Each structure stands twice: as C-alpha cells, then as structure tokens.
Amino acid sequence: MDGVLIPTGDHRDQHGIYSGKHRRYGVRLQLTTDLRGNLLACSEIFPGATHDLTVFRNSSLHETLNHANTIGDLGYLGSTVTQPNKTPKNGKIDLAREKTNTTIVFLRYPIERVIAHLKNWNILSS
User: Fold this and answer.
1) pTM (predicted TM-score)
2) Which residues pair with 47 in a beta bridge?
3) Three-class DSSP labels, 69-122
C-alpha cells in the first residue's frame, strides 16, 4: 500500500489541495496492489495536503485491509501496517533489521511500479 498525489493543476481557489511536500496542487489517494503488481483497490480522494496516514485512517481501505498483511512505507508510522525499521539517530541498524528492510523494499516494488505507471497517465491531471 502507498499514497500518491495526483496533480490537478493550479487551483488556488480550492483550500487544502496544495501539497507542500511535492510543491504542487493535487488530490491524494491510497492504492493497494498484490505482489504481482495488479491494482487491487483505490481509496477515496482527499485534499493534497493530507498526510498518507490520515488518508489511510479516514478511507474505506482502513476497514477492509488486513493490517498485518499490508506493507507500507515509513509514512505509516503509528499504524499496525508492516513497515521498514527506521534508522536510529546514530545512522546504523543491525544486520537483522537491515535484512528485514531489504525484504520489505522488494515486496514494495510492485506498488511503486503501479504508481509510476499511473502517473504517466496525463489524463488524470486534467
């Protein structure tokens, strides 16, 4: 599972759709895929300034997904979604956690490819 910002163009008259992180106007949604990269579900749209975790908690996906079998990125800290281990302040993690993070990255590859493919559809931004 991952969140994506779909650009909408410059809509300064609409409140909350500017994402400071991406420095563009858009709407945010959550996508889920299987391990083969097949799109399984898409959440409702939210204003672009909304954080991934907030979108997830307020979307219908929160109720329908099995959180123990869902893999997310560090944007889902504080939820029960499986996510990589955060690197501590000293910058080093042990070998076991590094292997776990590598496995999670490989399992997250399909959702990243789906998002990249979706962003190539220019019609979504118009």
Assistant:
1) 0.76
2) 27
3) HCECCHHHCCCCCECCCCCCCCCCCCHHHHHHHHHHHHHHHHHHHHHHHHHCCH
What confidence tens digit (pLDDT) does each residue in 5-56 have? 887 766 666 666 666 565 677 888 899 999 999 999 999 989 888 888 998 9
Distance CA(13)–CA(73), nearest Å, equals: 32
The more confident residue out of 18 and 97 is 97
**Cα distances (angstroms) measured from residue 77 to each of 7, 53, 121, 122:** 25, 8, 30, 31
* Residue 28, strand partner residues: 5, 46
Q: How many domains does the chain contain in total?
A: 1
The first and second tokens of residue 52, run together, are: 């991934």
Give the Cα separation of 47 and 16 in Å (integer): 5
